[in-house]
Amino acid sequence: MRPHPNMSARAWGELLLLALVWGGSFLTMAMALDEIGPLTIVLHRVGWAALLLWAVVAARRIALPRGWRVWGAFLVMGALNNVIPFGLIAWGQIHIETGLASILNAVTALFGVLVAALVLRDERLTGRKAAGVLLGIAGVAVIRGLGELAALDPRSLGQIAVLGAALSYAFASVWARVTLSGLPPVVAAAGMLTGSTVLAFPLAAWAEGWPTLALGGETWGAIFYFAVFATAGAYLLYYRVLAMAGAGNLMLVTLVVPPVAILLGWLVLGERLEPRVWLGFALVAAGLAVIDGRVLRLLRRRTMRAG
After folding, report:
1. What are the sequence ranges of the domains in the chain?
2. CB under 8 Å to 195, separation ≥6 — which residues?
3. Could you tell me the CA-to-CA distances from 303 to 56, 285, 291, 295 in Å, in that order?
4. Were both Cys, which of 63, 83, 162, 215 would link to 219 (CB 3.0–4.6 Å)?
5. Contacts of residue 224, Cβ cutoff 8 Å, sequence gap at least 6
6. What does the pLDDT look like over 152-176, one tens digit per residue?
7. pLDDT averaged over the chain?
């Protein structure tokens, strides 16, 4: 395994692009929920994206992976990174507020750093990284409103479900690093989404009825965005960032997605931003800067020179 002590500027750029794409998916998924259920959305999201990526694999004439082991890894990855967390978050949001769910989901960044440090020898936990993640989570909490935290209840099954989704995402990034890191990103993404589709189809058919293609134009527009851009394209970025920066750093994207989604709501829907939102953005940015370490090293050098 290649060590990932720090993230490169390119890795940060692609991680921020991934957050932008995933942040935009909140708007389109809300549109699709007016006509289809959450499990059917998951099926459309992963199914069409898998077909698109396999078409790319065929066009590039990339050799298909062989052996039951890698296809079994795809199935596990599809469960850990799509079916389990998507299902838990959808169920959890029936019982808790969306704002609280977003705060709990941001804990994915902390879980990602901790799980990677426990499983992967070259992604050890440092005090700087832990401090940066906690600062970022505090920023997300401020953005959503500290009043949301008053609803925290360890006995709430809805909250436990969203935390379970965050933990599933963390294990997914480590699983991908261990089992799929040698594959081209497009093959790893296509295989994972195929595993997700195999699992999502019977679940959606059983819980919400046989999927139909007789949908409205607005719903198809939403499906096009979150299948093509927020899934097929996003997971190509996901595996690229994983290869460049490691499993723990990859999960930092969950700190950036809530601010992106809120900014898009402000720009597209004209939603009002409270002053605390800008403070929260500043805390998230500060947390990412602490994790990256370059700003701190620059300040330390300048302090030493001044001294």
Report:
1. 9-306
2. 71, 74, 75, 76, 77, 78, 79
3. 51, 22, 20, 12
4. 215
5. none
6. 666 577 778 888 888 898 899 889 8
7. 80
